[in-house]
Amino acid sequence: MQRRVKTHHMILGVMCLMYFIAYIDRVNMSVAAPMIKEEMGLSTLQLGLVFSAFAYPYAAMQIVGGWLADRFGPHKVLVVLSLIWGTATLLTGFVGSLVSLLVLRLALGLGEGGAFPTATRAFTYWIPLTQRGFAQGITHSFSRLGGAVTPPLVIVIIALAGWRESFIVLGVVSLGWTVLYWLTFRDTPQQHPRVTPQELAEINEGRTDKPKEDKGPTPWKRLIGGMWKVTLVDFCYGWTLWVFLTWLPSYLKDARGFNLKEMALYTALPLLAGVVGDTLGGIISDKLLKRTGNLRFARISVLVFGMVGALVFMVPMISAENAMTAVLLLSASFFCLELTNAVLWSLPIDIAGDYAGTASGMMNTGFGVAGMISPVVFGYLIQTTGSYTLPFMISAGLLGLGAVMALFINPTQTVKRPPRVAPDAMPLPSAGIA
Question: What is the mean pLDDT of the chain?
């Protein structure tokens, strides 16, 4: 007899697809950039502006997108956001000027900026407590996989049709995902006609919080108090991740002497190690939670181990004489770094519950700010010192800071919704003496 796919597994699969598509739409510009630059007559500075235009609305939308998901539900909000970034991707195939290109990259950042916090909020009531780490790990591994397959995928489309057609095709795929999400997702399992009582019991096992229709005011002060340490750790994580995503090919070419073909191959090795690390970090954290019942240990042990491991492998990489040894150490460092990603995205759900969208937006603001600063600082230091040593040492130092700060995070100190007092339970004003 054919086994029925559980609805929360189906929802997780739809979200994995979203992370995969979102990263392709994010990275495709870098692949098509040489053709766009030539056809539109852009300078290197203008192309740099096009690249950076994505980052600013992306960072700004982290908290805003998460708050909107908390307030109006992830179903409606993620549909709107995916419509924005899918349409922006599609219309990029029709641009005729630098201004229109910049506007559409800003729109892409606007749509994708709130998407991951909204997805995290969607997991709050759909993913069982002991599967949150795995859910965050597998979705983010799909995002890394999307980044890895983008170059060959986009190059094939460009070779067959052209760079404009690559954006049109990917835009249509993104909008197709929007329709799929609209049809398959509901804000809570209780609202989904496909969820059985047995599956609902599995999803809610060990859970004390229940979905609430009345959202009430957002407790900003308590959320900031609960999340600022997580945001700082995410900044330290994001600093090093952006280094890998932006400067790794240049490092392998300039500092290690790889040719173009070798550079393409050895750039992929650390990124593939990251795909494995993303998934494994979430699985390990969930296993520790099931075995020990200690949420803080299950999350923080993996977080600290990943940060320290990334540091331990990065330091000898800096002084390694053999180029292949450096690549292997980089791969090990990135693997350890990505072990932390699933835990970082699980912490907003653990800490904030109903406010997980806002909380994850707060956390990922650290990543967004790191994305604005890290590539520029790294490039400036390389230009002024003529070496990659100091930039990598600064990254190692931030990994150490992140590991220390992680020790002070306690996901058991949750942000609870204040109980609403019924009108007839309100204390009466004291009567004066006549």
Answer: 83
Beta carbons within 8 Å of 194's beta carbon, 6+ residues apart: 7, 10
CATH number for the domain spanning 127: value is 1.20.1250.20
Section 175-179 average pLDDT:
95
- Looking at the fold, whether 243 and 298 belong to one and the same domain comes out as yes
Distance of alpha carbon 105 from alpha carbon 20, whole angstroms: 18
Q: Give yes or no: residues 138 and 276 share one domain.
A: no
pLDDT computed for residue 211 by the predictor: 57
**Alpha-carbon gap, residue 271 to 331, rounded angstroms:** 7
Give the model's pLDDT for residue 37: 79
Same domain, 284 and 368: yes
Residues 6+ apart with CB under 8 A from 169: 157
| Residue 195 near residue 3 (C-beta atoms within 8 A) | no
Assigned domain for 121 exists: yes
**Domain extent for 373:** 218-417
Contacts for 329 with CB less than 8 Å, ≥ 6 apart: 313, 314, 316, 317, 320
Asked if residue 152 is part of any domain, the answer here is: yes
Residues 237, 171 within the same domain: no
What's the rounded Cα separation, in Å, for the pair 224 and 368?
A: 17
State pLDDT tens for residues 343-377.
Answer: 898 898 888 877 877 888 888 888 888 877 777 77
Determine the average pLDDT of the residues in 149-158.
80
Q: Is 342 a domain residue?
A: yes
User: What's the CA angle centered on 356, arms 53 and 15, to 5 degrees?
Assistant: 65
